[in-house]
Design goal:
The structure is a homodimer. The radius of gyration of chain A is 28 Å and the shape is elongated. The two termini of chain A are 50 Å apart. In chain A, the strands form three sheets. In chain A, strands 1-5-6-11-10-9-7-8 form an eight-stranded mixed β-sheet. Chain A has a five-stranded mixed β-sheet with strand order 13-12-14-15-16, sandwiched between helices. Chain A has 16 helices and 16 strands. The first copy, chain A, has two domains: 18-47 and 82-339, BirA Bifunctional Protein, domain 2, CATH 3.30.930.10; 353-450, Anticodon-binding domain (Rossmann fold, 3-Layer(aba) Sandwich), CATH 3.40.50. The first copy, chain A, is an alpha+beta fold. At the A-B interface, helix 1, strand 1, strand 2, strand 3 and helix 3 of A face helix 1, strand 1, strand 2, strand 3 and helix 3 of B. Strand 3 (66-68) of chain A pairs antiparallel with strand 3 of chain B.
Chain lengths: 456, 456
């Protein structure tokens, strides 16, 4: 065959080498384990939904990847890749409501696709790791406090740098705006315009927010109160602003309950705090909202966000399914942590022990037996099966970041020499050391070594 | 809002309730663990490849789902969902060859998409679980023996019913056909026609194969030998047929080496055997081929298939990357095993213990503390946070298949009553029994109970 196909990455679709994928997989299974410890059950929805399901809420149309067959096919004419896991969850809950037990605690770790212009740090395919607690008809406010507790445990288990979860309630701003008749879903677009303006305070400062509000024709009576609110540092400050404006205090009182409950549920006080600039652009949140920042890496943006929605599935049913949840944007977070050297990516294989073959013809069975016993005790082990020189075999182990290489031949397997017990030479490629270990002791020895902190 | 969107499944895209997804996830992590024990490293490739990469080999065009944006966008104009994990592997190996260590042992567990007409047991979205060992330039025949050993360990760990891996080599038939000048890639299509005819012998019998060969205009001199070969039971039978036809014996001798090596590597003799009807339609195999059948469920078809290819990446590069691998069609196998009641799908949550709240106002901290200590010892635990009656709380545990419910109040937490130690009532909802356990002993007690075989 002549002309070969060019091999190139499609931009925005990340692909890792095995060392990165191993680390990403450790991340994912740590998250999964923490979510399960708190009783969240896994679900997975198809990558593909009907286009009208995905566009029901509007807003995302321009980013949707459609899916179809080259030859027209009615059944696939209107399909597309999901762009988040919340819309599929809404469809799932309605579709299977009669077979689910409520409160329905589900987690979902899947890739999502967004047809954004590819740019540094923006992916078109990425993992989201979501938890949500969905009620049928109602869901107690204490679950709003539970969500940050789960995320705290998860981030602790991931051993990522110090972080803080910021929390607010949409109802606070809603109460303030209602004093001038502005309500959510307002056809004037005022409600969303104010959300967007206040959301920028942290990055651009209060003066920019004021200018944005003026530009958006926000009623002049409201502007000072909104700007004040955005700068409040604590609940009492916010209460004062709302009282002065004769606004409803329900939002701030609910937030107070959530903060107190979270502390009772074991949330460290320094990792959760109110932030009244937090509004979140998405229009489905109706109460509590969360964003999470890595301390000192605020420029990364929020790495874990979410909130409460009074009605998850309003586009599909008249039944009410209120819920609260949060999503870790895993691919982005993982990639940033690797770039900042927070993640160990030194091994390219799960293998912990390479059994080298010094004399394949004579001792094949012995080498295979050693590997089998290591695996039986849960230690990933490979026998170097190709007929290459010993130095190449050790080179292979070293290139892949395999920690131990075992070497044994005539001398090691000779029963006369070692009190009737075969031994092996264990080369520790990480510490550049070598020890002689009896074959019977080997699995225990390796396990102990792997559990010791490495001194590098 | 009026008119609600209809909620319905897109046919061919399976979606499980949490109990099924929990079981599927156990399957996947068992497979993953076994693959890793044998030193296969994980990779993941994007769901999306360039269309020309997917169609390079031909054959699958009609089943490919293309991906695009509603508004034309050059960068996404020619993208499609992958239909297997072998083509992406080929592209990955060429693209990253200089950063990989060979032999490259990789596993890949991902969904693939095929636009087939949906029908019972045929999915358009399903999981494949692949392992492959790829060499650069060369790869020793012993790896052909290693593949069934890994699958044997994996299927044992999955605790599925008895199975047998059938093995043959493309070279056997190739040697026979070469005696009449028919070679792979023959423009007459004879080579592939014979493969397809012989592949059907097991299901339809030797007479049908003969008829198919006649219909395909296979040279008359060859037909008796092909039909004889298809009916051979052992290597010696095959050697005799080939010798009579004056055909090359390399295929049968290589197969003999693979079978002997597999036995040495620990493969039970009754789970691996030659089958000369096995040809596999796909045109990229060049040597060993495998298929796996569940004993007594042969009608399910092969649940795990693969083989050796002399050149994985010929469409992308002039470098040679020979390899050998196999793929478990997980979604189909899992679904069939569930339908045949081989899989436990009785729990709808990972939660093992529900901490009920008898007196939320007074003992909230105690309930939360109990749950926290259970989680700290790795036991998934939930506190029932909503203010519902005790009977509703127990009902929730029972509906979700949670094994234990803990009940404690004034009497249990009173230090005077229990030698200065608080206790809890542990309801075992599986065995309908109840025991009083000291709070300090609780994690150990639960762990022990979970490890005991259930007597139901």
């Amino acid at each position: 065959m002549s002309g070969k196909l060019k091999v190139e990455q499609v931009s925005g679709f990340p692909e890792w080498l095995p060392n990165m994928r191993l680390a990403e997989q450790r991340f994912i299974s740590t998250i999964q384990k923490q979510y399960e410890l708190f009783g969240f059950a896994p679900i997975e929805t198809p990558a593909v939904e009907r286009l009208e399901v995905l566009t029901a809420k509007g807003g995302m149309q321009r980013q949707i990847f459609t899916v179809g067959k080259p030859e027209a096919d009615d059944a696939t004419a209107e399909l597309a890749l999901h762009f988040d896991l919340t819309v599929p969850l809404a469809r799932y809950v309605v579709q299977h409501a009669d077979k689910l037990v409520f409160p329905f605690r589900r987690y979902q770790i899947q890739k999502v696709w967004r047809g954004e212009r590819a740019q540094r740090g923006r992916f078109r395919e990425f993992y989201q790791c979501d938890i949500d607690i969905i009620g049928r008809g109602k869901i107690d406010l204490i679950h709003d406090a539970e969500i940050p507790v789960v995320i705290n445990s998860t981030f602790e288990a991931l051993k990522i740098p110090p972080f803080k979860i910021f929390i607010s309630s949409r109802k606070i701003l809603a109460g303030l705006l209602k004093t001038q008749g502005i309500i959510p879903g307002d056809p004037s677009g005022q409600f969303v315009a104010v959300l967007r303006a206040i959301d920028k305070t942290q990055r651009d400062g209060a003066e920019k927010t004021r200018e944005a509000l003026v530009a958006e024709n926000t009623p002049a009576e409201l502007i000072p109160a909104i700007v004040d609110l955005a700068q409040c540092a604590c609940l009492d400050d916010a209460r004062r602003v709302l009282k002065n404006a004769k606004a409803d205090l329900i939002g701030v009182e609910e937030l107070a309950i959530v903060l107190r409950s979270a502390e009772k549920l074991g949330m460290p006080a320094d990792r959760l705090g109110p932030n009244f600039t937090l509004a979140r652009g998405l229009d489905y949140y109706t109460g509590t909202v969360y964003e999470t920042f890595i301390t000192g890496k605020e420029a990364w943006g929020s790495v874990c966000s979410g909130g409460r929605f009074d009605d998850l599935a309003e586009y599909f049913t008249t039944q009410r399914f209120p819920g609260v949840g949060i999503s870790i944007g895993l691919t982005r977070l993982f990639n940033l942590l690797v770039e900042s050297e927070y993640v160990d990516v030194s091994t390219h294989t799960p293998t912990k022990v390479l059994v080298a073959m010094q004399d394949r013809a004579k001792f094949l069975d012995d080498y295979l037996g050693i590997a089998r016993r290591l695996r039986e005790s849960g230690i990933p082990a490979e026998v170097y099966l190709d007929p290459d020189r010993l130095s190449d075999q050790i080179g292979y182990a070293s290139d892949k970041g395999i920690r131990f290489a075992l070497i044994a031949g005539e001398r090691e397997f000779s029963l006369d020499l070692h009190d009737g017990e075969p031994v092996v030479q264990v080369k520790d490629l990480l510490h550049q050391s070598q020890e002689q270990v009896s074959e019977a002791e080997l699995p225990k020895y390796i396990r102990r070594k792997l559990e010791e902190p490495t001194n590098l």
